[in-house]
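Running co-folding for WTA.
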Amino acid sequence: MLQELYQPHPEIAQNAAIKSMEEYHALMAKANEDYEGFWGDYAREKIDWFKPFDTVLNESEAPFYKWFEGGELNVAYQCLGRHLATKKNKAAIIFEGDNGDQRVLTYRELYYEVNKTANMFRNQFDIKKGDRVVLYMPMIPEAAISMLACAKLGAIHSVVFGGFSAEALRDRIIDAEAKLVVTADGAFRKGQPYMLKPVVDEALSYGCECVKNVCVVERNGEEIHWEAGRDYAYLELIKNESVKCEPEIVESEHPLFLLYTSGSTGKPKGVQHSSAGYILWAQMTMEWVFDLKENDTYWCTADVGWITGHTYIVYGPLAAGATTVMFEGVPTYPDAGRCWKMVEEYQINQFYTAPTAIRLLHKMGEDEPDKYDLSSLRILGTVGEPIDPPAWKWYYEKIGDSKCAIVDTYWQTETGGHVITPLPGATPIKPACATLPLPGIIAKVLDAEGKPAAPGEQGLMCITKPWPSMIRNIWGDPQRFVKSYFGDCSVDGKAVYFTGDGAIVDENGYITITGRTDDVINVSGHRMGTAEVEAAIKKHPNVAAVAVVGKPHPIKGEGIFAYVVLKSEDTIAEEMSMVQEINEVIKKEIGAIALCDSMIFVPDLPKTRSGKIMRRILRALARGEEITQDTSTLEDPSIVERIKNCCKSAGI
Ligand code: WTA
């Protein structure tokens, strides 16, 4: 690991929201002394309340914390309406299509589009406060417009990433009991049209009685099936709607959205976020971490199907009054210079992406950035997985010309916004290290007893006080909420939030995230539950047992590695077709993002006498590491050697 520290650049520090480590420590001290005062002041300053709140934090039903009770607001108003007085002609969204299409929506235009869409949802589909709306959308402005239209009405959106299959979509629709699905015919990717509406048709054909209507945006113009009385064309309906729409004023804790994410066991869980606490932190972190200035153009390459797209393409930038770029395509099309070309063309000031993309662009086009003028860049962000020092260095030197601040932002779907990250004008940065908790976030690396882990020792990444943008519940499953997040770590007998990640703290308090300690793997920065992939593989009729583990991958960070026990003894030729067949099943059950990078067929899995699969052994074997675990407790210790031989003959 690289040890050097890079000091913040004076020009950035001079104009930053938090300008020095002294300011950082002062804010932290304030949060420690008067936690509620700290948050209450920011909430009063940052949010345009329709009715002020009475209490800052109510802990009486912990861990079901309530923030800013008594307060009333509307998140769409916070993101759009309130900006009209000062920014009506400022670009809110700059859209670039895969094919180079461009579209700019000013704050006024976006406000009108959101109002029309909200009116349409209400008038045509009877969407009211609290109703759930599933969005299965490509990266086009209508995705953001639909999210904000839901917020305007107090309806709860649940965006499902467009790469998920019909089965996965159906599960999410049913769990959320959605009344309306908003989708597009499809979109464009690498110069080719791809389809979404047929996936919605298929999902609904599996039985989603809750869904009354489907609203379809035309994007790629391909032929699609229309179900009479159920499906309606977005662009047709919206023509007749008024640009005026009164916001539905909601209470602080009213759910803003659900977003399904993978856990270590069972089906994906619907992470529920609040209105006030979420938008407060989305806006504040946008201002602090990305050093936002009035004339900046900010670009986050995520997809709105993930939390990064929610908080840092739509809600954070718009609440902060920024210009946010939305890109439909992929960073490598038509070549590995696409992002850098866009940085030059739009004079991007903040660029935010995942380490996987950085590694890929580095590998595909090491010197590609030289062809473009990247001098507008000031802040470079990464998110989603640990970044390795070589990728960090290339990002810092080649993309940032050693002049930009790199913010390695650590957070999760559940945290709503950043929790551990450098501040560009204050924090000396250490390559590949998320550094320090943000002011107001009381994050600690704990040992198994709930004591702070010693410097250099691996511990558990916990947040020991509730914070405004934290997950409020798992939709429909409060017990799972408590168990998943407050079941593992406690301090002085009080359950604290455990992230599921391991971390190491150094003598200066700098935190390096080491990755998940549970059965969640991080593939290209996308969270995947091994249990989910296993459940999918088990649907193949010839699979007797399966165990899935993560294995380091040079580009993706982690790859999916499956050990499969077949019911019938197959020959090698048949195994080849089994790989294909099993991958087809995964594609159908989850989507192509969960395809296995390696699959090997083994006679059995290493199980203890009580039947528990020893995953640690499987993880070590996948990595080609020596087995250090005690194998004597296994039901059949010889299985390790036999699996090893299978790995060997498969070239692993
Ligand atoms: C991982 C994405 C190291 C971590 C915002 C976490 C990171 C999971 C970082 C959440 C980072 C995210 N360094 N690891 N900067 N950022 N992670 O819910 O394992 O899709 O628990 O949210 O990504 O993934 P999620």
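Result summary
The first helix runs from residue 10 to 15.
The chain has 20 helices and 31 strands.
Job closed.
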